[in-house]
Amino acid sequence: MHQSISRLQKLIEERISNHKYGKRPPELYEPISYLMALGGKRLRPVLTLLGYYMFQDQPSKVIDQALAIEVFHNFTLMHDDIMDEAPLRRGKATVHEKWNSNTAILSGDVMLVKAYDLLLNTDKKYLLKALKLFNQCAAEVCEGQQIDMLFETRDKVSEEEYIEMIKLKTAVLLGTSLNLGALLAGAEKADRKALYNFGVDIGIGFQLKDDLLDVYADKEKFGKQVGGDIIANKKTFLLIKAKSLATDETAKELNHWLSLESFNAAEKVNVVTEIYNRLGIKQLAEGKMNEYFESGFSSLRKLEAPLNRKSLLREFAETLIGRES
Q: What single string gives the DSSP state of each residue in 148-185?
């Protein structure tokens, strides 16, 4: 049966809405159902189903493993939101705001356990490899988050360090989602590697696009505050590049705005964006982003799979690449 992305997303949504994480005490389990129901593109579980579909029919056979990936991803979001003191997630109150931080920590903990529960529904032939893949990825995501937090206390972060951080924090989960699906389909090691590399490179490209959208997005389409990264002095690719290229008066002006503790937010966004424009930062970030997208598509070309199935994966990635919010 020919698959479409919307069919795969529907499959995932149905599985999510029917899945019960536990009953008592409700204060432990309700936050999980609440967060999982907030939606999103379901990018990672779709990639798991697509990774399987490259080599086998009926991606519904690995729906539990795809859900395990999505539960794990949402567990990281629940804990990240506490660390960031974020009030909103997809336009709704975050779990620690709606309940409290202790509940969010504990619910997050049990989410990780439930992700493993779902993974245990894997064929014995693949179970050990699947768990190893999952464990390595889970540790790397935590490493990426810790490195990101360390960056907040450092004056200088290099471009290479930043790319490595977003690779760990965001991109390896996309690569692993595809790799897991392909593993469960019995794919060859070289094909799994090509899919993993595709996911990682596309993931790095997505994060660079996020950095760009934060400054240059159309306010109407973006759905969150434009310039939030600038206001927070967040060390994105754009700021790191600007700091390394700015000299004389421009460097002085940039450092002045970065050092201010009280300021007019709109003015700061305008001035720093103007500095970025002066230094050609937008073009440099777009160039770097496209470099990773191209590298990802080059890995996809190496994949030994039916062309129509590879096209589906490529189209899915391209619609995400073209997004403006």
A: HHHHTT-S---HHHHHHHHIIIIIHHHHHHHHHHHHHT
Residue-by-residue DSSP string for 210-249: HHHHHHHS-HHHH-S-TTHHHHTT---HHHHHHHHH--HH
Cβ-proximal residues to 168 (8 Å cutoff; 6+ apart), any chain: 140, 141, 143, 144, 147
In angstroms, the CA 50 to CA 74 distance is 20
* Percentage, residues of the chain above pLDDT 90: 77
Token match 């889970």: residue? Answer: 138
pLDDT tens, residue by residue, 287-312:
999 999 999 999 999 999 999 999 99
Indicate the pLDDT class of residue 325, thresholds 50, 70 and 90.
very low
What is the sign, positive or negative, of the torsion defined by CA atoms of 148, 150, 212, 168? negative
How many separate helices (H) and strands (E) can be counted in the chain?
A: 17, 2
Sorted by sequence, the CB contacts under 8 Å of residue 43 that are 6+ apart come out as 174, 320
Tokens representing residue 97 in the block: 């705001």
How many CB atoms lie under 10 A from the CB of residue 128? 10
Measured distance CA(46)–CA(169) in Å, rounded: 19
**pTM score of the predicted model:** 0.92
Strands (E), 46-127: 88-89, 92-93
Q: Is the dihedral of CA 268, 273, 278, 280 positive or negative?
A: positive
Instruction: Report pLDDT digits (tens) over 67-112.
Output: 999 999 999 999 988 888 878 787 788 889 888 889 899 999 999 9
Closest CA to 177 of 34, 1, 42, 315: 42
Q: What angle do CA 163, 168, 173 make, to 5 degrees?
A: 125
